[in-house]
Amino acid sequence: MAKPTIPTEEYMLSGHMACLGCGAPLAMRYLLKALGKRTVVSIPACCWAVIPGVFPYTNLKVPLVYTAFEVTGASISGLRAAIDARGIKDVNVVGFAGDGGTADIGIQALSGAVERGENIIYMCYDNEAYMNTGIQRSSLTPFGAWTTTTPVGKTKFWQKTQKKNMVEIMVAHRIPYAATVSVAYPEDFINKVRKAAGIPGPKYIHAFAPCPTGWRMPPEKTIEIARLATDSCVFPIYEVEYGKYKITRKVVNKKPVADYLKMQGRFSHLGEEEMKQIQEYVDREWELLLKKEEFTKEW
Amino acid sequence: MVKKVITGNSAAAYGVKLARVQVVSAYPITPQTTVVEKLADFVANGELNARFVNVESEHSALAALISASLGGARTFTATSAHGLALMHEMMHWAAGARTPVVMVNVNRAMGPPWNIWAEMTDSIAQRDTGWIQFYGESNQEVLDTMIQLYRICEDKEVMLPGMICEDAFYLSHTVLPVDIPEQEDVDRFLPPFESAYKLDFDNPVSIGSLSMPHQWYMELRYKIAESMENARKKIVEVDREFGKIFGRSYSGLVENYRGDDADLLLICAGTMASTAKDVVDEMRNEGVKAGLLRLRVFRPFPNAEIVNLVQNAKVIGVADRSISFGNQGPFFTEIKGALYGKIPTKLLKNYIVGIGGRDVTTNTLKSIFRNMASIKDHGLDEEVTWVDLKR
Fold it and tell me: What's the CA dihedral at B116, B119, B120, B125 to 10 degrees?
């Protein structure tokens, strides 16, 4: 039998409350497989405030400290301070928040924690809208997407702005390590989390986690769509270590972005013109990323 | 014992040091800043072995400390007015998570218009968050209450956060002689924090999970109410024990100053109580039977103590350094509630004073006592009066 490429230990148990096909439990599962038992996780308001189950039950085999929506960065700073004060050396302190809790309401506390150089791992599981509250747009909702607060309607009120680039925002903080991962690539996911755990100071990992409910797609397509997101360069897989860029999943034969968009009901209202616009944007961002990798090659 | 002439903010910082706080997190706001500056000095000089988390907001300060407390550390923050208001969400969270975070709040008015001077509206507005609230009268009391608060809040039967309030500038920036207790005495009085939770990687728990209407949320809230009731007894016990070791105590929840036989009984909190004590003495010299009750604790509210202490009064005046718009002074409303059905009807009057730091002088308080005397003879003029209001 072939040797498993990912650890067989489980720190996230089955029987959770996520929707069918949800990418978020996969993100937590891989994260904890990489970090192991000596890990404490802090989670704000998000789908993961519900997924572990109702008090007094939990589906995690590590300590979990819930916190308020906007303060994951502060909560993990406090946890690290307490752990340091108690002289404990071998514990991973992890913040685990959604895209709204990271890029919108939680960006201040995250920025503070990263600027202070806290020894923490922050993972954003990005499903591109406020899914727990019922698919409202966030600043990580992509251009063109329908959500309940960017409905299509007669006036084409769908999302008109491009999503914030959280990794770049973190790089601008001169963070020691920032990376993107996808639930479609568990080996890469786990390798990056392990690498992050070995680097002192703040680490930011942005995990692509499709939401079948909010993206209006079949639940069995989660991995397929996540792969397509990377293969079309909508969501490139890369890391930035002390400013040096490295694309960890090279895309050789770029798939058309339209293939990715057409699999999801949230983009079903888009015409050829908008698809073309999105393709151009994705191409430009990809070129920029290649150039950054090239520019920082010798660093 | 060392005697130092220091400000209230400095006294608070000595309290933190003596309590061997492990994690400090705060954000600067006038007039709180000198508390954390002093603490930063203590940490920098190696006098206090604490982690100092220089957060980007008060909201994050309290969030960090809640998680630090759940991680098993003794924690401290200090803030004021707008900072406290920004913390409001996490104030509820601290009590709900049963974390004995201790805070100094420098009572300051809320803007606009901008005003950095003394008023109690900021902390009164946190009334329903589940925090124990003390109001200090002197710098010594601020320091001593800090040490008492850790004992009270960390008690297994309490496990709630607590704050000690200082009037802006009257305490925060005014120097007074303060006895700094010996570290070994404080260590004897205040053992290290033993959290019920800590982080146990062999038996991990989730803290703060979703709880549904049909199961435990209501019961968990009942437990907070119960713990707040337990705190009444603890406050008195801890104050008494403190007195035995340090030679100073503060009469638990309410201080009675010449109130037993007073016809005219004034109730107030904070520094104006010091001035009022002088005025009571003067009135007594003039043959007026004046007295004072000082509210040391606002939560838990000293209902029974007040009922006992006002039995002989003919007129009760309540001086509020805050106003609940659309009703009356918050102390007044609560005191009326405490007395209802417990004593025969008394003449009760509310005085709104010192808003936005307007000085509450001996003359202000004398005019209040004179008004109370007039009420005693002629009946109530109006239920609420704004004293020294320019018209």
Answer: -60
Residue A241 lies in a domain: yes
Closest partner CB to A63 (pick from B64, B205, B211): B205
Q: Which residues of B touch A77 (CB under 8 A)?
A: 25, 53, 55, 60, 64, 67
pLDDT in tens, A239-285: 999 999 999 999 989 999 999 999 999 999 999 999 999 999 999 99
Q: What is the pLDDT of residues A114-160, one digit of tens each?
A: 999 999 999 999 999 999 999 999 999 999 999 999 999 888 899 99
Coil, helix or strand at residue B19: coil
In a domain? residue B175: yes
What does the alpha-carbon distance between residue B146 and residue B159 come to, in Å, rounded to a whole number?
Answer: 16
Average predicted confidence (pLDDT) for chain A: 97
pLDDT at res. A210: 98
- For A200-216, what is each residue's pLDDT tens digit? 999 999 999 999 999 99
Query: How would residue B345 be classed by pLDDT, with cut points 50, 70 and 90?
Result: confident
- Cβ–Cβ under 8 Å, residues B305 and B253: yes
Contacts B212 to A, Cβ<8 Å: 54
Please check whether residue A285 lies inside any domain of the structure: yes
Do B128 and B191 lie in one domain? The reply is yes
Task: Let me know if residue A13 belongs to a domain.
Answer: no
In A138-176, beta strands by DSSP E? none
Across A51-60, B158-167, B281-290, least confident range: A51-60
Distance CA A226, CA A128 (A): 13
C-alpha–C-alpha distance, residues B279 and B225, integer Å: 38
- The CATH number covering residue A199 comes to 3.40.50.970
Count how many domains chain A has. Answer: 1
Alpha-carbon span B164 to B250, nearest angstrom = 14
- Residue B206, in any domain of the structure: yes
Print the domain residue range for B307.
254-386
Query: Is A3 among the domain residues?
Result: no
Cβ-based contacts of A75 with chain B (< 8 Å): 63-64, 66-67
Q: Annotate B264-319 with DSSP letters as a single string.
A: EEEEE-TTHHHHHHHHHHHHHHTT--EEEEEE-EEES--HHHHHHHTTT-SEEEEE
Residue in B63, B71, B215 closest to A83 by CB: B71
